[in-house]
Amino acid sequence: MERSEFAPGDYVRHPQQSDWGLGQVQSAIGTRVTVMFENAGKVLVDVSVVGLERAEVD
Predict the structure, then answer these.
(1) Which pLDDT score, from 0 to 100, does residue 56 have?
(2) What does pTM read for this prediction?
(3) Which residue of 28, 35, 38, 42 pairs with 21 in a disulfide if CB–CB is 3.0 to 4.6 A?
(4) How confident is the chain (58 residues) per 10-residue block, as mean pLDDT?
(5) H/E/C letters for each residue in 7-22?
(6) φ, ψ of residue 26 in degrees (nearest 5)
């Protein structure tokens, strides 16, 4: 099993879908990252195709 650059609990944003809002990583295996976004729900993202951006949360 490949390690991912993301871990459950990390906060991210999708660079092409700003209207999805803030997302929290639910699971990450290799390049497949499942994210729960505020306005889009649960989305499976292949980070080899889409470069998720890390987000800071206050």
Answers:
(1) 87
(2) 0.90
(3) 38
(4) 84 96 96 97 96 90
(5) CCCCEEECCCCHHHCC
(6) -95, -40
3 Cβ neighbours under 8 A, 6+ residues apart: 30
pLDDT at 53: 95
- Report the distance separating Cα 26 and Cα 37, nearest Å: 10
- The answer to whether 1 touches 29, Cβ cutoff 8 Å, is yes
Q: Which long-range contacts (CB under 8 A, 24 or more apart) does 14-18 make?
A: 14/43, 14/45, 14/50, 14/52, 14/53, 15/50, 15/51, 15/52, 15/53, 16/50
Number of Cβ within 10 Å of residue 33's Cβ equals: 25
Read off the tokens for 50: 């889409």
Residue 37, token pair as written in the block: 């976004």
Q: What is the reported pLDDT for 2?
A: 66
